[in-house]
Protein: DNA mismatch repair protein MutS
Organism: Phyllobacterium leguminum
Amino acid sequence: MNELAQFTDGTQTGADAYDAGAGARPTPMMEQYIEIKAANEGSLLFYRMGDFYELFFDDAVQASKALGITLTRRGKHLGEDIPMCGVPIHAADDYLQTLIAKGFRVAVCEQMEDPAEAKKRGSKSVVRRDVVRLVTPGTITEEKLLDPSEANFLMTLGRVKGAEDGRMALAWIDISTGAFRVVETAADRLLADIMRVDPRELIVAEPVFHDASLRPVFDMIGRAVTPQPASLFDSAIAEARIKRYFDVAALDGFGQFSRCELSAISGAIAYIEKTQIAQRPPLMRPEREEEGSSLFIDPATRANLELVRTLSGSRDGSLLKAIDRTVTGGGARLLAERLMSPLTDAQAIAMRQDAVSFFLSEQQLAERLREELKGVPDMPRALSRLAVGRGGPRDLGALQRGLDAARAIAALFSGRALPREIEDACAAFARLPGHHAEHLDRALGDELPLLKRDGGFVRAGYHPELDEMRGLRDQSRRIIAGLQAQYTDETGIKSLKIKHNNVLGYFIEVTANHHAIMTDSDEAKGRFIHRQTMANAMRFTTTELAELESKIANAADRALAIELAIFDELTSEAVALSDFIRAGAAALAVLDVSAALACLAEEQGYCRPMVDASLAFNIVAGRHPVVEQALRRQAANPFVANDCDLSPQDGAPHGAIWLLTGPNMGGKSTFLRQNALIAILAQMGSFVPAGAAHIGVVDRLFSRVGASDDLARGRSTFMVEMVETAAILNLAGERSLVILDEIGRGTATFDGLSIAWAAVEYLHEKNRCRALFATHFHEMTALSEKLARLANVTMRVKEWDGDVVFLHEVAKGAADRSYGVQVARLAGLPEAVVARARDVLHQLEAGETSGKADKLIDDLPLFSVEVKREQPKQKSGDSALLQAVLALNPDEMTPREAMDELYRLKKLAGMM
């Protein structure tokens, strides 16, 4: 029989815990496992056995592959070996992190009683176990599993049958901070609203999940979508569920919500209750976002502009990485949120800009603030861990340090005239619970353990009984020696000793000749109690010694129990004050972001843009924020700044369209993207990389830059391009900003030209938006004569000795060619290919190919000669013809001399 002491739970040992032959009833332990697993389908079951979480059957197979751990087999079930793997409890968070990152969900099953209790019920009894938590990507709170700079949103989609216009709602929660928001949406902007929030998990009702009309959206999101029973979203009981969770009698104080919004909110709460089992995270009341309050950025634009991640999925190279100067986790998350959801309210934007301007003008204050902020811990996440029973002493310490820092930071602004956003932050500091901060200062020690079960986190002097228990635990020998000295003085017996053994415990021992003093003297009578008589000694005890012995024996347990009670008291107090603590943490994040954007503006030379309700879009000396920093790091040439003016011209009621032509490598795509990024930065409340900027609020931003395919859905590069272009033409309005690059490139020349031509006309006449349209179809420049709001601009180049120099400057006018052959040469194409391409290009441009393809095909032998000429195996003496060609110097020949040499070469080749 195999012994499995490292896996046993104390109720069954060895293979007996697992073995059940073919046709036999499962063992009690496996029966329990199978029952719990059946109730948690779709999740890997972490089944607690002693100091390990064990996984069996298919769960073990999947987990062993995902975690790279050994797959073993233990016992049999129905005649088959049972696959098994396990992870130690102390390292469970690390393994959970890997599993969650790979898209798994985990049900954590704990032992609900001491194994000794199960043994009392019989040798075959099994320890009671139950699932205490479902760990999913959107519900994690552990510090190890979370990126401090990224929010961790769980999102739900609510839809009500019969809703007008197909209206839906999205609710999203960050359980680690308590943030809770909801917004109405529609089918045409559903994916954009989801991607704006970037949830780790999207929960939808099963009927919605199987709705064919929404299938493309769910396919784009992938494994993050989880179908759940429709009952979680039932709008009929939604209000009751919300009131029960927040313990309120009515929702009037929450604001007005539609039925689909209530459905989404209820679904989020129901899923939290389902995954957290008995715990109730302290969530903020759901905050309703007004539709249109943030800049609409469609998913393709968000990806093309690489706002928070590059196309390869890296944060390096993204706009967020380039502008992030925050020093706290909360500040980093707020910056990302503002970047993903720029505002459309000019007054709200101005409030944020005022805060940045304040710190630019008060740089010494800003530096002191940033130094203070560097030590601020993540209070909202610490508070959430404490509330759901996963926190420790260091989380209480995080609240303590955070509250102390908030008080110190508030003092920095005392007596100053402040802009509205900073004033509001200071008001939040004033509402912080000072008594709780003082309580934490008095209660918590300087060095805090990770786990509360380790004890030692309560400061000495805070709790008298705890100090006494610690003294007994840590200084029992000194205390016993002191009591012995006291008894010696009382009795006068110099040889009196206090000893200890496992039978009597602590006892007083004197020699037999001192018997009378211990029993008959007035001082000792009734005080010393006889315990045992030995041949040469007598043993006694006292009530005091017996009590001390009991205290010493229980001191460690009692000390830990007192500390745990203090921990629970401090935690309950913090959770009760969670609204104030979260508001203070949010204020710290606002200050961090404002000071960080001021630091960025000073460091990079950004200006404050004017943002108003007009249709202006005038950027003077604009730069690309990411490319500019990359060039500086590489010590390369400085970034070339360019103007862009799409404002209404000459009294026109709508913004302008710029038709941008010019060579590849000339900087067209950079210019297009930088103007889109400047608009986003401006409307998130940041300063912008420009000499000056005036931007009328953009309500929708569309960018079609770059080429990609979607083979999984059967879409070619051109099809993807047309789908995205269609979305732009259907959704853009006069307040939109549209960035289009090379529309029509993926098909035949005349097809592409026709599509691009018609798209520009539609943008001008129907959408009437501000737009930048880059193209290599030079024929389109003629549109400037027909379309009043369209202007031709080009990327300037300079030709020198047959090469082209890219100036990266935007100027009025139109390019007459694209210099593609020169770019091909720079890319390293063989010289023979470049030479032949030039020849073909010259013939096409000169109109010499009446039969076009036929004429070019006739010229192919020339290409073959070129290739042969370049072979390194050729020697100068191989032929008279080759020697004659190599001897030519065309740069020094007159046209007449060149003609003569050509005839001579033809004679040498036998062609005349």
User: Anything to note?
Assistant: The CA atoms of residues 504 and 903 lie 126 Å apart. Residues 1-15, 849-853, 860-878 have pLDDT under 50 and may be disordered. The chain has six domains: 14-135, 148-291, 324-378+392-433+577-603, 465-563, 606-822, 876-912.
